[in-house]
Write a structure and sequence with these properties.
Helix content: under 10%
CATH class: Mainly Beta
Strand content: over 45%
Structural class: mainly beta
Number of strands: 11
Distance between the termini: 47 Å
Number of helices: 1
Amino acid sequence: MSNSISIEFDNQTGHFIPGTIATGNVIIFLTSPKKSRNIMLQASGTAKTSFTTETSNRCSLEKSLFNYKLTLWKALKNDEDLIPSGKHCFRFSFEIPSNCLPNFEGKHGHVRYLIKAEMHISLQFNLVNERTFYVLSILKDPIKYETVKRNFLTNGINIEVSKTY
């Protein structure tokens, strides 16, 4: 077996609701002792849109929804400490902001959430693992097609509303 790093959420589905706490472990397996500066975790959410106007102008915008950087372990002396061989678990937790958008993939944009763990190893390639996770949309009241249609018509807006949900 080779050196490895993995990210495991306590919620095994990797699906979260805005305003909740995501918890889990970064698991590192080392075949031999390694000198390291630190073990870092980064969790982020981004929304991006991009499109071309009728006059061929390219428009794009990217917004950070959140960006957490956590130090899970740090060397105490000389910027490097020896981590023994074997399996090591490092706990993490971070809050999914209550105003987060749900994941989305579309022709002109996306909303994505990513978590990345990295062990900085002296004079070798770092151990790195990335994975996506999902933020779900929670609607307080179900949207009803007839209500949406009536609201558009009573506000003098003449558009066709299609039932796609």
